[in-house]
Amino acid sequence: MVLSSLLAASLLAATTALGDSAAVRGGTILQPDGTRIEKGIVVIEDGKVTAVGGPETPIPAAATVLEADGKVVFPGMILAHTQVGLDIPNENMPIAPFVNVYDSIEPNSAEYEECLRTGITTVHAIQGNNTVIGGLSRIIRPQGDMVEYMTVRPDYALKISITPRNGFNRMTQLAELRRAFADLKAHVDAVAERRYEEEQKKKEEKVLVLPDEAAKQGLAHVTIDDLDARWRTLWRASKGEIPLFVHCDRAMDVSNGIAWLREAKLLEKAVFVVGTEAHKAAGALKQAGRPVILSGALVHKETDPLTGKESEVFVPKVFADAGLPFVLQPNGFAFNADGLLWYQAARCVREGVARDVALKSVTQWAADAIGMGDTLGSIAPGKWGNVAILSGDPLDQATVVEKLLLEGRLAYDRATDRRLKELATGQELAAPSAEAAPTAAPAAPAAPAAPATEPPAAPPAGGGSGSGK
Fold first, then answer.
1. CB within 8 A of 369, min separation 6: which ones?
2. Is 254 helix (H, G, I), strand (E, B) or coil?
3. Which residues contact 164 (CB under 8 A, 6 or more apart)?
4. Mapped to the 3 state alphabet, what secondary structure does 335-401 carry?
5. Above 60 in pLDDT, residue 392?
6. Which of 177-186, 200-209, 228-237, 410-419 has the lowest mean pLDDT?
7. What is the pLDDT of residue 115?
8. Pairing state of beta strands 36-45 and 21-30?
């Protein structure tokens, strides 16, 4: 582990030049709340935005200037819950907190290329919903030759599903979930009791207590290394150290999920990933006060059992009318219209959702859902320089991403998009030379609270017990 961490750090140091600065000049800066700055300037230094303003905003002499006259400058969009780029979305095992999506991420996946092409700068890669307890997730950039290059936050969250996985019913699903935490407690208690006995041996005067009391007193001496590897991640989750992305397909699952989370004292760590029918529980979700990620389907269809009449509900409108922030996901990924994140936001506006709500659902609220609202989601001093230069309005069907910056570095340029040229000409083009190939994405600050004056630091090397394959 030490060797791999040193290797990752040395590789990142070799590709991240400190002191880099860039400026985007002349475009209309559009924020998720709808505010605009005409002929605006965005200055990015050491990966972070240092100034946002009008044409009078000073630009550092050493900055690389990208002209955006007549264009729209918009924050990079965020996929807050996705399996894009993973070789397998779900494990066969119902309880698998010991696996890690690190082992399943394919850096050369064309899906990450499509993320850049459509304005997505941050991806939360997490296992799918067909589970009881899934493995550790990872927040990444959609660019890089190695997972270490791509990583923004390793080992970030766990997926828990309240909705039954394939072959389970709701009773067995909740029974498996409770049994996993009961087995964890039994293992920790056994370790704690042993540690208590070890501490007693060091004392001249030994105190004999019942096993339950020994486990309680010994718990203070238990470290994560004392536990079997199968239980370490779940133990951290049980202590509230890891966010939980909780899948609730239906309204009854939302009710069960909130009840279980309160019972486990983990509601404050939950992000709800809901299906379309769960719009009936919008009130309960609002009362819970936790982030909500909607299904990519957006429309709930239901047939009245008495009349046979089919009705449709546009789910984001229900949440918007309830005053409940929500996060959008694509429906599939980029191979049809609703597989595009911006298209999902545009549909919301078409169906009567306020424009600023739709824009926040793919930027600021998505950043909040993955715990990076202070770092991502808008263009503001102190936030990372993840900026898209668009040909027009972000919700316009004809708009394309012309350039995309990841922490102030050019990650995508439509003018040199080889795959687009191949589609346009019908001919396979020669691959760019190694000299012309873009460098790996820069390393990100270790935490969003880091001072804006600090240069980006290399993220720790990822690695998981078990396999995501």
1. 80, 81, 271, 291, 293, 327
2. helix
3. 170, 172, 173
4. CCHHHCHHHHHHHHHHCCCCHHHHHHCCCHHHHHHCCCCCCCCCCCCCCECCEEEECCCCCCCCCCE
5. yes
6. 200-209
7. 95
8. antiparallel
Q: Do 140 and 123 meet the contact criterion of CB atoms below 8 Å apart?
A: yes
Q: Which of 407, 438, 464, 462 is closest to 9 using CA atoms?
A: 462
Contact 253, 246 (CB under 8 A): no
Which 3 state secondary structure label does DSSP give 403?
strand
**pLDDT for the residue numbered 337:** 78
> Distance between CA 406 and CA 122 in Å, rounded?
9
Instruction: Judge whether residue 450 has pLDDT over 50.
Output: no
**330-352, pLDDT tens digit by residue?**
998 665 777 899 999 999 999 99
**Rg of the chain, C-alpha, whole Å:** 24
CA distances from 127 to 2, 131, 161, 213 (A): 27, 9, 11, 38
Cβ contacts of residue 224 below 8 Å, gap of 6+? 232, 235, 236
Q: How far is CA 162 from CA 168, 189, 240, 250, 392, in A?
A: 11, 26, 18, 9, 41
For the chain, counts of helices (H) and of strands (E): 13, 19
Residue 220 or residue 469, greater confidence: 220
Phi, psi of 448 (to 5 degrees): -65, -20
Tokens 């709500």, residue located: 357
* Cα 346 from chain centre: 21
Range of weakest confidence among 97-101, 390-394, 443-447? 443-447
Separation CA 115–CA 398 (nearest Å): 17
Confirm if 135 and 98 have CB atoms less than 8 A apart: yes
CA 196 to chain centroid, in Å, comes to 40
**Cα distance between residue 48 and residue 44, in whole Å:** 5
Q: What is the pLDDT of residue 444?
A: 46
